[in-house]
Design brief:
With 892 residues, this protein is an alpha+beta fold. It is built from 26 helices and 35 strands. Strands 28-27-29-30-35-34-33-31-32 form a 9-stranded mixed beta sheet. Helix 6 runs parallel beside helix 14, helix 12 packs across helix 13 and helix 18 packs antiparallel against helix 19. The relative contact order is 0.08. The structure holds zinc ion.
């Protein structure tokens, strides 16, 4: 790149200050002390990119980013400005510009190739560049395959082989879309890797394959960058009350459906994560970095995090490597004089996060957190924080990651090999030899669990003979066997186990994520040799099991309310105007000469209804819909030829309730929890294909709410007129579903008669010294644990649900069981803790508390849920309780 000396005045650095860098020589980045002027010339091009602001202001930090060993930049490689049109740090770069730049570099550089690995919900490409030396590129597939042997053939990979293998770094940026500096740094980093000439970068690229993913969350980034760029005038404003600094609801942190993608690495419910998991497992990188931002008042954080919160399933060696890598970040940031810290916050506990997920896959995850400017400039306690400054730190951490990769290469590779070598030994010592998951009760949910595990390279087998574990029967061919003696032993253990003991009582995020409980499947822990019932290895599990038993009907179809996607099927019939009914009691039918029992909640789908001028369907439509539903929703149908039943109510009697098409409104907007709302929006619209109107909470009093028969309040505050409108709508006959954060609202607006339980934390922590108070108080919070809810399955909202339902709970407010008979739809059982952390005092209080309530209010209904029923989209079991409320609220 040509050096434009006109920009030099931005630099305020004096020559002697450079010697500071010389006093901290890193293992791989030695500043050439004798040639200051040539260093200046080398540093200049990049420095200009970083810090020349678009509004002509000089930034307050010195231009001192040492890039030792770089002799020049290849002029054939376009700078970001040449492609994007602005210098990095002077505007917020929007997703299409990022993609354009990566494309442009890949087109001209023999060090860079580009892959599109997924598409976001909004249709944006997720991309990563593979950056390595041209020689490595020529044998890239060979490198990748050799690397896979570290896990798959770990016993046979020798130290001598490792000596000659490149290390793979997966460097990822800005998973939270409004933590935007990471992506800008990724652009500069790509320029640097592609264009820098000189021994340091060239040697590094010989030894390293970088998977450079500039934006983990393009939809969120688009929301955020659009906001800041269009709320800025000709000069930057650092006032935090200014519009640029205050994003509109829901902000750009999350993805399209308002999910935090940095909680999705383990459960992989979204296309962004699924694409990344494919990349991750195709390459099995040795280090994965995750660049974030934190509060403006902070400095810069890199892992290690709080040591007492390390996940015990992660081997100690991983934390030692984390420490070793940290040395390089420290040196890189020392050199440019940036402040930072480690160990005091954040943790390596929850494997759903990008910085911890690698740790359970033989890799090392590293979290970076940069104090956020959000806008181009932001008032901070110690002056003005500039976007360009934040970019610069992220860039420095990218370089120090590269340096660490080169210096620790063989250690990192050996770590992965040994991680997988140990798995069979650990499995041998572990008391559980296999998990067995039944397909019997929740076929689709069990299959979804199997698919999730397969995304992580877990091997599942058929069950080859009938088996009993802890008194529960598992039938051959109707269950999966997951032996622990396999490569992903540690990962399997960490997602299947229930955890009840903890070293620390505080958590940055949830304390548990037991997947079989989330999927509400019957499963067992087998403790003897598993080989004698392990059948064939399963290929990719597909959802199946849709069936029309008895073929084409002449009278009606019955759909049991047991399959996961039954609500999607039901919506098809209601949408078509078919007068379906729900059976309020169990009954029997003679099928093929056999008496067969059906549970309450079974849906009756008649071929004929009353002939009215409004009738929109005929028998042919019904047959077609049944076929579509069986095929696409994997639901079960039974054809019956008569409405008369041997036992229980007949199909057309008063023990049935006719169902209405739900027309759903979901409260959204400022004051409402976007995370809670997004989970329900995603559930209804994306997964169950049920339309839902997103109602802005500030317009409720002006909206015509009579259009809706179901409104969901996901939690949050409402202004008085909007509250009044919602209360009136409910009492006039609407069905209000109040999620955990809305229970208090429903209570204070006299829609629910329910009493909060009080808990006096202060009396428990009385007398403790000041520096122990936070922790002691925090120990009584519930950051996310799993409990058993005992469901009244005779209540319509409990139809089809197992009596003991695992639910995920966040928050420490509990409620008394309702006094009015029939309202206590779900109560936490006597020993409710299934997995996770809760203090003994809170656990005692939870027993017998209300977890789900259903009440009448005027002509309307109010159904309240105290748990996060669709938490992070993977709580497939408890989601059904919410969907029951949507469809069956008029049946009680
Ligand atoms: Zn973040």
């Amino acid at each position: 790149m040509e050096v434009d000396l006109n920009h030099w005045p931005i630099c305020t650095r004096e020559p002697e200050q450079v010697s500071i860098a010389r006093t901290h020589p890193s293992r791989s980045m030695i500043v050439d002390s004798g040639k200051f002027l040539s260093l200046v010339a080398r540093l200049l091009p990049l420095a200009i990119l970083i810090i020349r602001p678009s509004f002509g202001q000089a930034l307050p930090f010195p231009l001192d980013m040492p890039l030792p060993g770089v002799t020049s930049y290849d002029p054939k490689i376009p700078t970001p400005e040449e492609i994007i049109g602005h210098e990095i740090g002077t505007r917020h770069t929007v997703p299409y510009q990022v993609e354009a730049y990566f494309n442009a570099i890949a087109a001209v550089s023999d060090r860079v190739t580009l892959n599109i690995y997924a598409q976001s919900y909004e249709g944006r490409n997720l991309i990563h560049a593979i950056v390595t030396s041209p020689t490595n590129h020529a044998r890239l597939e060979e490198i990748r395959e050799a690397n896979l042997r570290l896990a798959d053939d770990s016993e046979n990979v020798t130290d001598a082989e490792i000596e000659n293998m490149p290390v793979v770094l997966y460097q990822g940026y800005s998973v939270h879309g409004n933590e935007a500096s990471g992506t800008e740094a990724a652009i500069l980093y790509l320029y640097h890797l592609a264009a820098a000439r000189g021994p340091v970068v060239e040697d590094a690229l010989d030894q390293i394959v970088v998977i450079l993913d500039p934006m983990f969350n393009p939809d969120g980034r688009d929301r955020f960058t659009d906001w800041v760029n269009r709320n800025r005038g000709a000069v930057a404003v650092s006032d935090t009350q200014d519009r640029e600094h205050n994003e509109a609801w829901p902000g750009g942190r999350t993805n399209h459906y308002w999910f935090d993608l940095n909680r999705d690495w383990m459960v992989g419910q979204h296309p962004e994560s699924r694409g990344r998991l494919k990349t991750f497992h195709a390459w099995r990188p040795h280090v994965l970095t995750d660049h974030h931002e934190m509060g403006t008042g902070s400095t810069f954080f890199f892992q290690p995090g709080i040591p007492s919160r390390n996940n015990p399933n992660t081997p100690e060696r991983t934390f030692e490597l984390t420490d070793a890598i940290a040395q390089f970040h420290a040196e890189g940031l020392d050199r440019i004089g940036s402040q930072y810290y480690t160990r005091e916050s954040f943790d390596d506990f929850f494997y759903g996060k990008g910085s911890a997920f690698p740790d359970i896959n033989g890799s090392v995850g590293i979290l970076f957190e940069q104090a956020s400017s959000r806008a181009l400039e932001r008032d901070a306690n110690d002056g003005v924080l500039h976007y360009a400054f934040t970019v610069r730190n992220q860039f420095a951490a990218s370089l120090s990651t590269l340096a660490a990769g080169a210096a620790l290469r063989t250690r990192l590779l050996t770590n992965q090999r040994d991680f997988y070598r140990e798995s069979l030994v650990l499995a041998d010592k572990h008391p559980i030899k296999a998990y067995v998951v039944s397909l019997d009760r929740g076929r689709t949910r069990a299959q979804k669990l199997a698919q999730l595990l397969q995304r992580h390279r877990v091997e599942l087998y058929e069950l080859s003979r009938d088996l009993s574990i802890d008194g529960r029967a598992y039938m051959a061919g109707e269950a999966y066997v997951i032996p622990l003696a396999q490569r992903q032993m540690r990962l399997i253990k960490s997602v299947m186990e229930r955890t009840l003991t903890y070293q620390d009582s505080l958590f940055y995020d949830v304390s548990t994520w037991t997947l079989p409980l989330a999927h509400d499947v019957d499963y067992g822990e087998y403790r003897r040799n598993a080989t004698n019932f392990k059948g064939d290895l399963l290929g990719d599990v597909k959802l199946d099991g849709g069936e029309i038993v008895g073929g084409r009907s002449s009278y009606a179809y019955l759909m049991p309310w047991n399959r996961y996607f039954a609500p999607r099927s039901l919506y098809r019939f209601l949408k078509a105007g078919v007068p379906v009914r729900v059976m309020m009691d169990r009954f029997s039918v003679v099928l093929n000469g056999n008496l067969t029992w059906f549970e309450s909640g079974t849906i009756v789908i008649p071929l004929k209804g009353r002939d009215t001028p409004l009738k929109t369907y005929d028998a042919e439509n019904v047959h077609e819909l049944v076929e579509q539903a069986a095929e696409n929703d994997h639901t079960l149908f039974y054809s019956v030829s008569s409405g008369l039943t041997p036992d229980g109510p007949d199909l057309g009697g008063s023990s049935t309730s006719s169902l209405t098409l739900p027309v759903i409104g979901l409260l959204t907007g400022r004051g409402i929890s976007s995370g809670n709302a997004g989970e329900l929006w995603h559930l209804l619209s994306e997964r169950f294909r049920i339309p839902v109107s997103l109602l802005d909470v500030s317009r409720l009093s002006r909206n015509d709410l009579s259009k809706y028969n179901v409104i969901v309040h996901p939690g949050g505050s409402l202004d008085d007129p909007d509250s009044e409108a919602l209360v009136k709508w409910t009492k006039d006959g609407g069905s209000l579903i109040a999620m955990s954060g809305a229970i208090n609202w429903a209570q204070s607006n006299d829609l629910l008669e329910i009493e909060s339980k009080s808990f006096d934390t202060d009396s428990l922590i009385q007398g403790l010294p000041y520096n122990q108070l936070d922790e002691a108080r925090g120990a009584h919070r519930i950051g996310g644990s799993i409990f058993t809810l005992s469901i009244d399955t005779t209540h319509p909202v409990g139809f089809g649900i197992n009596h003991s339902l695992p639910v995920f709970h966040i928050g420490s407010q509990f409620y008394e069981a309702p006094e009015t008979p029939g309202q206590g739809l779900g109560l936490y059982s006597d020993q409710p803790l299934l997995s996770g952390y809760i203090s003994d005092d809170k656990l005692e209080q939870l027993e017998g508390s209300a977890g789900a309530v259903a009440a009448r209010a005027g002509k309307g209904r109010v159904i309240g849920f105290m748990d996060r029923l669709s938490f992070r989209a993977y709580w497939h079991g408890s989601q059904r309780l919410f969907l029951n409320a949507v469809f069956f609220s008029r049946a009680f």
